Every structure is written in C-alpha cells, then in structure tokens.
Amino acid sequence: MAACLRNDYMQKRILAKLLILIMIFSAYSSVKLPVSTYAAGEVYNVNGHFEVEAESLTYSSDLNKVALDDASGGYALQRTGSLNSDSSKNDITLNVNVQSEGRYAFYLKLKTNSSYITYYTKLVGEGSKTSFMSNVKTGEFIYFPIDSYYLNEGNHTLAFTYRHCGYYIDKLVLTNLSHEEMFENGGYNYTLMENNSYNLSYELPTVLKNNIHPRLIIEKDKINSIKANLTHPQNKERYNRLLDAANKNYSNCLLNTNNSDNKNHDYLDYIEANAFLYALNKNTSNAKKAVDGIKDYLKTYKASYNSLTESREAGNLIFRASLVYDWCHDYLTRDDKNFIINQCLLLFTASEHGRDGIHALNAYNSDHGEEYVLIKNMAGFAVATFDEIPYYYNNVCKRIVEEFIPSRNFRYENSDFNQMGDNYGIFRSGADSFLKLILSNLGMEDLITSNQAMQAYQPIYRRNPNGDFMRDGDCYSLPFQGGYQVPSGLTALLFVQSLMTSDPYLKGEYFNVTANAGSNNLADSSISDAMYLALNDVTVSPKQKNDLPLSKYFGDKSGVMVARTSWDSGINSNTMTVSMKVSENNMGSHGHSDSGHFYIYYKGPLAVDSGIYEPTTGNKQEHLNNYYRQPDRST
Questions:
Q1: Across residues 271-284, what is the average pLDDT?
Q2: Distance CA 616, CA 318 (A)
Q3: How many alpha carbons fall within 13 Å on the CB side of residue 136?
Q4: pLDDT one-digit tens code per residue, 542-600
Q5: Residue 357 · residue 382 · CB < 8 Å
Q6: pLDDT at position 362, please?
Q7: Whole-structure pTM value
Q8: Concatenated DSSP letters for 129-186?
Q9: If you ran DSSP here, which 8-state letter would residue 478 be given?
C-alpha cells in the first residue's frame, strides 16, 4: 500500500514538473521583443521601440473607427472613398518625445484588399512626401514600412494622411530596431519574407556565387591590371587625387546632426578611396578607415525631408556604402555587416521606392522609377549584399530583368535620342548606363542592347558653340546663361558608354566634359576617382569630335536631326547649329508633344523652344501642360 502511494506521489511530481516545463516553453515560444504599448495620450516617450493603437491617437473626422476581430485592440481606422488629393489636413497625428537620438523606421500595421496603396507623410516643420507603393501583400494585417527619419532628442510630430483610401490601420510603430530584430527574432508579420513566399512573376536572373568579392565595379580577376595601370598617363592625375583623399587626417566621419542636410562629400571620397586601396593592396589600415568611416557616416547622416533628396543624395550614400561592403567584405565583422545593411534599408525606406525594391511604381515607365535608386543604388546594394540577404538581389534584379530592360531595349532599338530631352534625357541615360555597368560586372551586359551607347551622341551633337545645349523636353536649367553646361548624368553616360563600346570619341568628350564639370554634377550621377581607376580602359585613346560628321539623324521614332557648319566653339564662333524634330511617338513624362519643333543658333539663339520647366500646380500647371509641353512654340 505504501509503495502504491509512493508511486502515485512520484507520478504526480513528474506530471507537475512536465506541466511547469510546458508552461515555460509555451511562454518562451510566444515571447516578442520588449515593447512599450501606450494608451491614449498627447505626447509619447520613445526610447528605441514604440507602438501604439491607431484609434488611441488624434485622428481626423474623415476616418472611421471600425470593429475588426483580427485587429490587435479589436478596432482599426479606415478612410472610405477613392482618392484624397488634399494633403494639407492630417488624418493621423503622432506626437513623440524622442529620448534616444538616431534613425527610426515608421511602420503602419495595415490590412489592404488592394496591392496598390498611396499616402502622404509629414515630419511637421521639416517637410512632406507623397508615396506610391505597389505589390503590397493583401488580405491580412502586416507591418509595412512607410518612412524613416533621423530624429534628434526632443519633441517631434509625425503625420499620416490617406491618398488612396480603403485600407485599415491597426497600429503605428516607430522603432530603431533592425529588420532582423523585428521580423526574424521578434515574430512580426512583414510584407516580404526571405523564402519568396510573396507571389511575384519575375524569373530569377543569374545567381551570384557566394563569397566572391569584390564584384561591384571592381572585379576580382582584374585587380592586377588595375594596379598596373594606376600611374598610366590617363590615370595618374585621378590616382594622385584619390591618394590625397585617402590620406586626409580625419579622426572620424561623424556628421553634425543639428543640421537638416549634413552631407559631406569629402568624407565620402576619403571613405571610398580607402576601400579602393584595401581592395587592391589588402592593407588593413585602409579597411579600418573605410569601415569605421562609413559606419560613422551612416549613423549620423541626416537628409532634408523630401523624397527627391532622400532618393538621390541618400542613394549615393547607399551606393558608396555598398562599395565599402563589397571591397572590404573579408574585413567586415558580422556586426559590421548587419549595421550597414540595416542603415541602408532604413534609408531606402525613406526614398520614393520603398524598402525592398518591389514596391516602387513605374520601374519601367517614364518616371522617377527609371532613375538611379532602383537601377544603380538598389542594384549595387543587392549585388554587394547577396551572400547575406539574397532575397534582396532576387527581388531587385528580377524586377529589373522583367520590367525595366524590355522597355529600355525597345527605346534603344527605335531611337538614338532620349525623348525626355536635354536635361532629363541625359540624366536618365546616365542612370541607364550605370545599370549596364553593374550587369557587365556580372557577365550579363548582353541583356541590354549595345545600341544604348548611341544615346551618348545626343549631348555631343546638341551642344551649341557657346557651351549651352539646344533645348528639348522639360528643361530645368535657364537658357543662354553663358558658360559650359554639364547636366547631371552626362559624365556617367559618356564614360560608361565609351567603356562598353571602346568608343574613342565618347571617351574624348568625357575628358572634355570633366575638365569643365566643376560642381554641376549630382554625386549620384557622377564617376568617382575610384570608379574611374577601376574601370578605365587605357588601351582606348581619346579622339576629339572634330573628325565626326557634321550632321546626325537620331532615328525615325524620335525624328530628330541635327546639323552644324563646323565643330568650332566659343561665344564668337561662326558655327551655325540647327535641329528639326518630326517624331513618330511620344514617351510622355518630361518629353513634349512637339513634333514639328525646330531650333536655330547662330552667334546666339534665333529660334528656340521657349519656356522653362518648374513643377507647379493650379493655373501654372495648366500653362505647363497647355503651352510648354505642346506643339511648336519656337520663337
């Protein structure tokens, strides 16, 4: 009897212990990251990670509080209707007191039935943005990153307003946690997981081989030839300038975070130069300067709050961070890699294209989607970080291959002239050229037709003797200001296309332009000293354009022909230039519906494309569309 009681007692003890273990395991498996979920209030303290129920915040009367079983608090906010064009009135306002300065991501926990959402965001007192996002996961609540900011300690007001309406908002999250901390360890549901569960139709392009670095701009098997050519007459000046930049005596590359736009290109030149030298010589002192420098810069970089600045200047920073990541890959620790990746993803979140490269609209169309963010900065970042986050390469490169390249090849094969004109056309042709360059590093340059190079002749033939350009399309630079015009993107267009085709005339014009470029070029669209030294083919000697024919026809689709009496230049030159445009198609965007337009220059403009492009609204927008972008206004 005693034995039976003892056995029963032991069984109960064992069962009790098992129950305790089960409870501990269940509690552990359901643990999320430590967060602070606040109740209603006017100002919320933020020290790292903060989330709040949307319905507890101040929201406009245009929003409805809707009961939903799958919303975390049982309720979500919704704005009904179709399109809200009034961005001045805030739908949801979040007042925070930031207690730990740094870069924060702003998420909405939302549910949508449409994969396309648009919205307005504000950092009150600093600016506002309009965002257009596609390929958003539908049918369930997900955490979607809508913006990011560098926030100093103190009070800030963030605002959100619906543009397209209908989707539900359950929570707002402001966090400095990394993607890994939130979504891999924290259990949050994100829009895109690394197992490619998100349903995209793109075919996967060539997969990179893991752990083969460098592979972005510098190719590993070309390092010896790069080193041998550093002091070649074509390279010597750029090499000496790079050494001067690398040897600057900077104790750190921390930026002043009290400034709203604190970029410092001297720091970036110093960082990139040291990364370049490490890739060639494996001197760890160069790697330390580059890695410490880019981490300092990323940690403290603060852009002006508008989508163009954060897409272009921040994009340039991301690309140069990607070069450091690739060129110093064997020096980086795991923590270094995680930090650089997370900071770049936060910067992408603030751009027009969103965090993951799949959400931006018009990747193939005539819009900002065809500029540098996707096809240079995201593509470069994807190539550099493929070993660690292959999903990013898969998404970005699949979108480029599926959407961007077919539309570009159609354009290149049908016209040697970019119909966005002599400002935007050159800028966007420069972006296209960077994509060709990145693909060539991967052995995929044949995806883009070689006829792309012909667009580099557009700025050669359309430059007037006084250094100005003939005017076509939306021109944001004032005409006839004197001096030598260098539109953004021109150096990239000429250099890359001369490299791809071994064209001595394009190379000669590149040298002419760089001698006159000064500070006119956006950093995002220029060729740095390190990139030049890594790529320049010294076997191609430059030739001057004087040997070229005096006229050129740019193809039937654009219908543009340019003729000149000589290649002599100067304000007092006797050279006459004329152009005629009888196009078969219109690419829209910054191009004009002006078939029949003509241009004449002789010692000054005689017949010109009048007007100047300024982004406008209201009556000015009507004038822009009905006059400036319409058929012939030559005067």
A1: 98
A2: 30
A3: 29
A4: 999 999 999 999 887 778 889 999 999 988 999 999 998 886 666 666 666 676 778 89
A5: yes
A6: 57
A7: 0.85
A8: EEEEE-S---SS-EEEEEEEEEE-SEEEEEEEEESB---EEEEEEEE---HIIIIISS
A9: P
